[in-house]
């Protein structure tokens, strides 16, 4: 920073105007000036106390020739010189232009400054401070004299004079040389600057103005190009439109100008073809019109439905209450499911315990019957062989067989006494079920059964009635159906209710035994009545959706009752027991006939049940039927053990035959005829009849066989011959009638004829009557 003595404002203005020239002139001999004095741009304004400084913070701008970086000061230092010029009255036109040499020096100095960078700024500023103190600033007269001498020297081209007389002339020549590029000196004639000469304020202002002008010119050129391009596009568009209009006008003109060629011949007009085409077109239009009408009607219905829905939604009040109901129903169902999931394991354990107890009892009866049959048959075989008897007329019997025989006889005596007390005198030996338990076994069974039933009562003892009472549960869903039927049916509740009620119904079925005549019927159970009431309440609603609730009971039967009934048939049912068979048939009729959702509906579970019934009866025929054949000498005596055993086995087989045919109406006729007639009658019962002596006993047995046959098999009045499976039986009847007609039992022949008539063996009966001249029996045969 350099300090100088204060001068008045005008003197500083004059000095600033002349200092530009003084910077370019060499120092005269004898003077102490070594460096040019700082220009007015480096001085402070008058208020600054005459202090000169490098003011402001440098900033970066572009030079007029694009030379690297130019460091410029702040606006305050830049505005100092113009204000000084304005104060001194110096006009712009009087400003001395910078020569070409000075411009080159300025450019060289700026390039050196760029190379030196910021590191030289601090050193140059210190040098300027030291030199400024020794510089003596010349006055205005001295500067004018130096300017004239320099101009004269340039005119003479030999030296630079300090005489200022011809300064103006030299200055003018300098301007001309600048304008003429050919007058520029060669590179070796140019002066080489050895000192750094900073640009003056005017030079920087000129450069900035040039930069602004160039930028403005570039922007204006770009705008001009853009305008030119837009105008070109507009001209193209206008040209295309004009050409199109010309083409259209030309085509219109040509079409107008074109004349009809009379030389062209057309086919004759056929009115039928035109009429046909018009009719076809009319038909298409009519079809289109009808399709549009259908679409219109559909849209009208949609609009009505939408309006109705909107009205229902708008008219439905208490939406908050509806939402509350749905939330409460959701929570209730979730809690119900959680409760049932927790209890289902306990329910299954109780069911398994009861099933195991009943299975143990059934297996006990079956094993005892088979063991007794085996030991008694063995005993009779030993008795019939002479070689097995001892010398004293007795044969040896092992202790176990003897004990079994005594046990069998003891039970028979007790049953006989019980029948006498009840007045049943028509009982046949062998038709008893023989399912009595000893007192000890009965006590043990009842105790185990009581424990299981106690566990059954404890299953839901810690559960609220709203979650274990079927009637209360169905009441919840009934409220839903009454309040919001649409959402109720859309949720398919009729499919969910059977699944929800399954565990609760199974608990009530733990004590249910369909093989006992005194067991509670399905219709008397609480769950059955509750479900029926729920279904009956939906009858009031006659909509199509309401019919889905009528299938709830049938679904429960298929999903819950039928599988349990199938287990009883496969593992617990004894087909030889008439009481069990009768009770089972009663329950099956309720399930298979009365509660089917539609006619002839047979679900998979029901098919499985029927298959299980058939398989169980086949197994009974193969495992439990045994009719031995003994010599006639052994069976002629009705009191002999062989005769009694054979009679018991025949009546046991006939009992199974009757039990099988009791399934008429539930099983198909083909199945019953194959099982009852083909496997049991023809294979076992007829063999026993053929081995017997014809007489009243044989006729009685034949009457019992015919009584077991279903009447619907012979309802066809046009039948003259019986069903094929009875051919062997009919042949045996005719054979017996021939023998009896020649014996003392001639009256039994009429009974045989009646049997033939009953089973529709009319042709055989008529032939027999005619052959034996039994005219009094012709009235038994009804002629069509």
UniProtKB/TrEMBL annotation:
<feature type="compositionally biased region" description="Basic and acidic residues">
    <location>
        <begin position="105"/>
        <end position="116"/>
    </location>
</feature>
<dbReference type="GO" id="GO:0005634">
    <property type="term" value="C:nucleus"/>
</dbReference>
<feature type="region of interest" description="Disordered">
    <location>
        <begin position="171"/>
        <end position="193"/>
    </location>
</feature>
<feature type="compositionally biased region" description="Basic and acidic residues">
    <location>
        <begin position="205"/>
        <end position="215"/>
    </location>
</feature>
<feature type="domain" description="GCF C-terminal">
    <location>
        <begin position="471"/>
        <end position="685"/>
    </location>
</feature>
<dbReference type="GO" id="GO:0000398">
    <property type="term" value="P:mRNA splicing, via spliceosome"/>
</dbReference>
<keyword id="KW-0539">Nucleus</keyword>
<feature type="compositionally biased region" description="Basic residues">
    <location>
        <begin position="57"/>
        <end position="68"/>
    </location>
</feature>
<dbReference type="InterPro" id="IPR022783">
    <property type="entry name" value="GCFC_dom"/>
</dbReference>
<feature type="region of interest" description="Disordered">
    <location>
        <begin position="205"/>
        <end position="227"/>
    </location>
</feature>
<dbReference type="GO" id="GO:0003677">
    <property type="term" value="F:DNA binding"/>
</dbReference>
<comment type="similarity">
    <text>Belongs to the GCF family.</text>
</comment>
<protein>
    <submittedName>
        <fullName>GC-rich sequence DNA-binding factor 2 isoform 1</fullName>
    </submittedName>
</protein>
<dbReference type="Pfam" id="PF07842">
    <property type="entry name" value="GCFC"/>
</dbReference>
<feature type="region of interest" description="Disordered">
    <location>
        <begin position="1"/>
        <end position="140"/>
    </location>
</feature>
<feature type="compositionally biased region" description="Basic and acidic residues">
    <location>
        <begin position="76"/>
        <end position="86"/>
    </location>
</feature>
<dbReference type="InterPro" id="IPR012890">
    <property type="entry name" value="GCFC2-like"/>
</dbReference>
<feature type="compositionally biased region" description="Acidic residues">
    <location>
        <begin position="17"/>
        <end position="26"/>
    </location>
</feature>
<keyword id="KW-0238">DNA-binding</keyword>
<feature type="compositionally biased region" description="Low complexity">
    <location>
        <begin position="117"/>
        <end position="126"/>
    </location>
</feature>
<feature type="compositionally biased region" description="Basic residues">
    <location>
        <begin position="1"/>
        <end position="10"/>
    </location>
</feature>
<feature type="compositionally biased region" description="Acidic residues">
    <location>
        <begin position="216"/>
        <end position="225"/>
    </location>
</feature>
């Amino acid at each position: 920073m350099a300090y100088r003595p204060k001068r008045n404002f005008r003197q500083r203005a004059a000095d600033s105007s002349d200092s530009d020239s003084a910077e370019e002139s060499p120092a005269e001999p004898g003077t102490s000036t070594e460096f040019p004095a700082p220009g007015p741009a480096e001085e402070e304004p008058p208020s600054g106390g005459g202090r000169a400084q490098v003011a402001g913070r440098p900033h970066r701008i572009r030079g007029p020739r694009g030379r690297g970086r130019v460091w410029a000061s702040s606006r305050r230092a830049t505005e100092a010189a113009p204000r000084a010029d304005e104060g001194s009255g110096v006009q712009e036109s009087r400003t001395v232009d910078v020569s070409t040499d000075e411009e080159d020096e300025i450019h060289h100095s700026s390039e050196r400054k760029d190379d030196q960078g910021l590191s030289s700024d601090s050193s140059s500023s210190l040098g300027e401070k030291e030199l400024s103190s020794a510089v003596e600033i010349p006055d205005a007269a001295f500067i004018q004299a130096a300017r004239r001498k320099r101009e004269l020297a340039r005119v003479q081209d030999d030296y630079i004079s300090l005489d200022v007389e011809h300064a103006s002339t030299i200055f003018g020549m300098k301007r001309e040389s600048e304008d003429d590029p050919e007058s520029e000196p060669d590179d070796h004639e140019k002066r080489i600057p050895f000192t750094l000469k900073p640009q003056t304020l005017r030079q920087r202002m000129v450069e900035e103005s040039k930069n602004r002008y160039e930028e403005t010119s570039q922007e204006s050129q770009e705008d001009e190009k853009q305008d030119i391009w837009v105008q070109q596009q507009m001209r193209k568009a206008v040209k295309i439109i004009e050409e199109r209009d010309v083409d259209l006008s030309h085509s219109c003109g040509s079409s107008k100008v074109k004349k009809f060629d009379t030389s062209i011949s057309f086919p004759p007009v056929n009115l039928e073809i035109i009429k046909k085409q018009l009719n076809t077109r009319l038909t298409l239009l009519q079809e289109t019109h009808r399709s549009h009408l259908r679409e219109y009607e559909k849209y009208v219905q949609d609009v009505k439905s939408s309006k109705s829905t909107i009205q229902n939604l708008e008219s439905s009040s208490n939406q908050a209450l509806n939402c509350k109901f749905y939330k409460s129903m959701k929570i209730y169902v979730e809690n119900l499911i959680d409760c049932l999931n927790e209890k289902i394991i306990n329910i299954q354990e109780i069911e398994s315990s009861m099933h195991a107890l009943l299975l143990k009892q059934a297996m006990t009866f079956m094993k005892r019957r088979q063991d007794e049959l085996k030991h008694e048959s063995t005993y009779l075989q030993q008795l019939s062989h002479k070689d097995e008897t001892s010398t004293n007329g007795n044969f040896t019997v092992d202790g176990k067989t003897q004990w079994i025989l005594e046990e069998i006889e003891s039970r028979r005596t007790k049953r006989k006494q019980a029948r006498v007390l009840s007045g049943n005198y028509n009982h046949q030996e062998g038709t008893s079920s023989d399912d009595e338990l000893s007192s000890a076994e009965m006590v043990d069974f009842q105790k185990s059964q009581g424990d299981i039933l106690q566990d059954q009562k404890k299953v839901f003892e810690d559960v609220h009635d709203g979650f274990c009472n079927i009637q209360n549960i169905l009441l919840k869903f009934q409220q839903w159906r009454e309040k919001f039927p649409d959402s109720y049916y859309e949720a398919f509740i009729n499919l969910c209710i059977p699944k929800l009620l399954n565990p609760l119904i199974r608990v009530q079925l733990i004590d249910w035994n369909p093989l006992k005549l005194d067991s509670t019927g399905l219709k008397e159970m609480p769950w059955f009545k509750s479900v029926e009431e729920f279904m009956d309440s939906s009858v009031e609603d006659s909509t199509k959706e309401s019919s889905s609730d009528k299938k709830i009971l049938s679904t429960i039967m298929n999903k819950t009752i039928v599988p349990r009934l199938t287990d009883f048939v496969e593992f617990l049912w004894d087909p030889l027991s008439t009481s069990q068979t009768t009770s089972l048939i009663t329950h099956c009729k309720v399930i298979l006939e009365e509660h089917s959702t539609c006619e002839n509906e047979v679900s998979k579970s029901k098919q499985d049940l029927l298959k299980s019934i058939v398989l169980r009866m086949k197994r009974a025929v193969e495992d439990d039927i045994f009719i031995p054949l003994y010599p006639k000498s052994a069976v002629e005596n009705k009191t002999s053990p062989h005769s009694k055993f054979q009679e018991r086995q025949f009546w046991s087989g006939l009992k199974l035959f009757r039990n099988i045919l009791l399934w008429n109406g539930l099983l198909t006729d083909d199945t019953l005829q194959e099982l009852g007639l083909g496997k049991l009658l023809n294979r076992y019962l007829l063999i026993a009849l053929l081995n017997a002596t014809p007489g009243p006993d044989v006729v009685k047995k034949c009457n019992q066989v015919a009584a077991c046959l279903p009447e619907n098999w012979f309802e066809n009045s046009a039948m003259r011959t019986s069903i094929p499976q009875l051919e062997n039986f009919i042949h045996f009847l005719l054979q017996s009638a021939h023998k009896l007609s020649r014996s003392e039992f001639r009256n039994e022949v009429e009974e045989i004829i009646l049997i033939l008539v009953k089973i529709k063996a009319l042709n055989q009966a008529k032939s027999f009557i005619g052959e034996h001249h039994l005219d009094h029996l012709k009235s038994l045969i009804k002629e069509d």
